[in-house]
Design a protein that fits this description.
Elements lengths: L4 H4 L2 H5 L1 H11 L4 H5 L5 E4 L14 E16 L9 E9 L4 E7 L4 H6 L5 E11 L2 E5 L2 E4 L5 H6 L4 E4 L8 H11 L12 H6 L5 H9 L4 H32 L12 H8 L6 H14 L6 E6 L5 H14 L3 E5 L3 H15 L16 E5 L5 H13 L2 E6 L13 E7 L6 H8 L7 E6 L5 H7 L4 E5 L9 E7 L4 H16 L3 E5 L17 H6 L6 H10 L7 E4 L5 H12 L5 E4 L12 E6 L7 H8 L9 E7 L6 H11 L3 H11 L2 H4 L2 H4 L14 H17 L7 H10 L2 H7 L3
Parallel strand pairs: 4-6, 9-14, 9-15, 10-12, 10-13, 11-12, 13-14, 16-21, 17-19, 17-20, 18-19, 20-21
Antiparallel strand pairs: 1-8, 2-3, 2-5, 3-4, 5-6, 5-7
Length: 733
């Protein structure tokens, strides 16, 4: 993080090319500074050992334990037919449990001499199961002797740091490498302003680095953590505060709706009254639109809380004020859907310039990549002349050729699919930067909103409109109880017989391009030895089997847009009984008559994704049913995740569960780029207070000194955080 020459030193020079290569390839560490910021995952105490009883399967672990006994066996095998094969079995214990170590062949000699009963050592390897017992095969180990000079020195600390390691580089080797570079920590420049550090009683950075790698007491670890968490929270919040500050300097045209124009004509026609939440959020948005710098607001609302209506009213307000509004959707299916529902909601108010349009009416156009040339040319003409007040489209809207008459507001639906380049490209379409409203149906805990979308103000819609039905969710354990799955298909038939429709969702499409061999297998897939269930296969099985006689259609991302739209229209019109689809239906698809959903291999989806999918049913007056089918065993984490989804409809509660189960980095969008998360000690959920305080401090620092001229250490840390890949992730919003 700190680009001081001593810390910029490449590891190749300090540790030698072989070690440096492994560190770069497997841990992404390139410089002395990177290595100093590779913090221990936990610490072992001399007197206390890892609980062998709770070792996770298939994970690379480091344990400290004592040898209970060691036995050498000989056996016959293809390589050693005369009974000359050797196998050394060592049992180690830590008081909580026992673990077997196995060494074979020539590898037995050294451990046979060294691992005598009573010896203590650190062992590192992958936990596997053999004859129903946990074992480590050929683990690497490091003896913890209390005599030899060098070892006493190396293991002097009362706490042994255990580092995030890989099979190629054990924790103690990382520890030794850190030992080598630790003196450089003295050269680390401190990014925190002195007043802030002293006011909060935080230790200086060099001291924190020393204490996190070589703590003598638990208090040392606590001091180091408290300090390093502040660094991460503060530097990140300064980056976001600077972005907010820069945005606030931009000019924008204030957009105030005409007193009795399009918006009031629209409101008069609404067949229901807005919920309190919708009124409150609309007011926040209208206040922002009336100012002379661009609105940057994140609108998060539960599935079905009426976000589209709130966004549409904001768009109409801008049209009233003489501007144009654009809505950007992540997929063509969604853009067409939004276009249909907005035209329906507006009625003849959407027929500007046409016969039958009323006096306040405007034109609502659709613009997607797959439209025919004539339709596309007409849509572009309507935009440049200002004839169209509202345009809905995919990223086709961002192309250079698309010109607006006067773009006043951009609404981005489901922001996590839009990078900032697109956002900025659209921004550049206005004579002055347009106002921006970002909508998401993925509930985001407050701290994540402050971290990931920290450059946006946040509004939350958490009430469901009246008339929404509850959704019952159940887990269907297909492997333990196959008759439950048979019952699930009966329930789908019953819903159809009662005049309703159903979705069946699968993780994969199932045509050749999706070759499961090519797909990278996750540990869970490996364990199951079968590829995820596919739309085309399941649709086929259902038509021939449990759902024969019903009209079943498929929908997935590789179909031609016209075919997708036709399938969606037939389903919306009630002509299709069951739609077997991938997650293309996750966002925004609105068919009130669909009451049941069966999610196959539900354990392959994330918590938030399942919640999104489930929001597609129960949108009308009939109650919804969501069945989560899984073959994972009862006790597995995957099943616990599914039980959590089945037990609550509260998206904010689920997003917390989701965060606790995943690494923070995934949530911060780093997972996609494959880079490590820039948060190493800060936990987004637990450290809510630190993040909130850091945000206040950062805002104050940036307001006083936007260029950070008086804080060179902070500038350095910021440049390091905002190197290329981080820049993109910070601006995902």
């Amino acid at each position: 993080m700190d680009l001081v020459p001593a810390l910029e030193e490449p590891l190749k020079k300090v540790l030698g090319p072989a070690t440096a290569k492994v560190m770069a390839e497997h841990l992404g560490l390139h410089s002395v500074g990177d290595l100093l910021h590779h913090y221990p995952r936990r610490y072992e105490e001399r007197g206390q050992l890892t609980h062998l009883a709770d070792l996770p399967m298939d994970e690379h672990v480091t344990v400290v334990a004592q040898v209970a006994d060691a036995r050498l066996h000989t056996f016959a095998s293809a390589k050693a037919p005369r009974g000359k094969g050797q196998r050394l079995e060592v049992t180690i214990t830590d008081g909580s449990g026992r673990l077997q170590l196995v060494f074979f062949g020539n590898g037995v000699h050294k451990p046979h001499k060294e691992l005598l009963p009573g010896t203590r050592a650190m062992f590192s390897g992958k936990v596997s199961l053999f004859n129903r017992r946990l074992q480590l095969a050929h683990p690497a180990y490091e003896l913890l002797r209390g005599d030899a000079e060098e070892t006493v020195e190396t293991w002097a600390g009362a706490l042994i740091p255990i580092y995030p390691a890989t099979a190629k580089l054990e924790s103690w080797k990382i520890g030794k490498a850190i030992q080598t570079v630790l003196p450089s920590a003295q050269a680390a420049t401190d990014p925190l302003p002195e007043s802030l550090r002293e006011g909060r009683g935080l230790v200086p950075l060099p001291e924190a680095l020393l204490k996190i790698h070589r703590p003598h007491t638990k208090a040392d670890v606590a001091d180091a953590h408290a300090r390093l968490k502040w660094d991460e929270a503060f530097v990140l919040q300064v980056a976001l505060a600077r972005r907010r500050h820069a945005d606030a300097q931009l000019p924008a045209v204030p957009r105030k709706p005409a007193p009795d124009g399009l918006l009031s004509a629209f409101d008069d026609r609404l067949p229901f009254t807005l919920t309190e939440g919708q009124q409150k959020v609309s007011k926040e948005i209208f206040d922002d639109l009336a100012t002379d710098h661009p609105m940057h607001r994140l609108l998060q609302g539960e599935v079905g809380s009426g976000k589209t209506l709130v966004a549409l009213r904001a768009m109409l307000a801008v049209v009233d004020a003489g501007g144009q509004a654009a809505m950007l959707a992540p997929t063509e299916v969604l853009a067409q859907q939004h276009h249909r529902s907005i035209v329906e909601m507006m009625g003849d108010l959407a027929e500007g310039g046409m016969l039958g349009g009323t006096e306040h009416a405007t034109k609502v156009v659709l613009l997607t990549g797959s439209m025919g040339t004539a339709a596309r040319r007409q849509a572009m003409l309507d935009l440049v002349t200002g004839e169209a007040g509202v345009v809905i489209g995919t990223h086709a809207l961002i192309e250079d050729k698309v010109q607006f008459h006067d773009l006043g507001l951009v609404v981005v639906d489901e922001q996590h699919r839009f990078g900032v380049e697109q956002r900025d490209a659209l921004r550049g379409k206005g004579k002055q930067p347009p106002h921006l409203l970002v909508m998401t149906a993925t509930p985001i805990p407050r701290t994540v909103a402050m971290t990931v979308f920290g450059d946006l103000e946040t509004s939350v819609l958490d009430q469901l409109p009246a008339g929404r039905s509850p959704i019952a969710s159940h887990v269907v354990p297909a492997a333990d109880k196959p008759h439950f799955l048979a019952r699930a298909w009966e329930r789908v038939r019953e819903e159809v017989e009662n005049g309703h429709q159903a979705y069946v969702v699968c993780p994969r499409i199932g045509d050749e391009e999706d070759d499961p061999k090519k797909a990278r297998k996750s540990a869970e897939d490996e364990a199951e030895k079968r590829p995820p269930l596919a739309v085309l296969d399941i649709a086929d099985q259902l038509t021939k089997g449990p759902l024969s006689g019903l009209r079943v259609e498929v929908l997935h991302g590789r179909m031609h847009p016209d075919d997708k739209d036709a399938v969606m229209r037939r389903f919306a019109a009630g002509e299709t009984h069951v739609l077997v689809a991938t997650t293309v239906i996750e966002v925004g698809v609105n068919v009130p008559n669909a009451t049941a959903m069966v999610v196959m291999d539900a354990d392959r989806f994330g918590v938030s994704q399942l919640h999104q999918l489930r929001g597609r049913v129960g949108r009308g007056s009939a109650p919804g049913l969501c069945l989560l089918v899984s073959e994972m065993p009862e006790a597995s984490p995957a099943r616990q995740r599914l039980n959590a989804v089945a037990s609550t409809l509260d998206g904010f509660e689920l997003s917390r569960i989701d965060l606790e189960q995943r690494r923070e980095g995934d949530v911060l969008g780093q997972a996609q780029s494959g880079a490590r998360t820039s948060l190493r000690v800060l936990a987004v959920i637990e450290d809510e207070e630190i993040i909130a305080e850091a945000r206040e401090e950062a805002t104050a620092v940036v307001a006083a000194d936007p260029e950070l001229t008086s804080l060179p250490g902070l500038r350095t840390a910021l440049d390091a955080l905002l190197d290329e890949e981080r820049e993109q992730y910070l601006e995902k919003g």
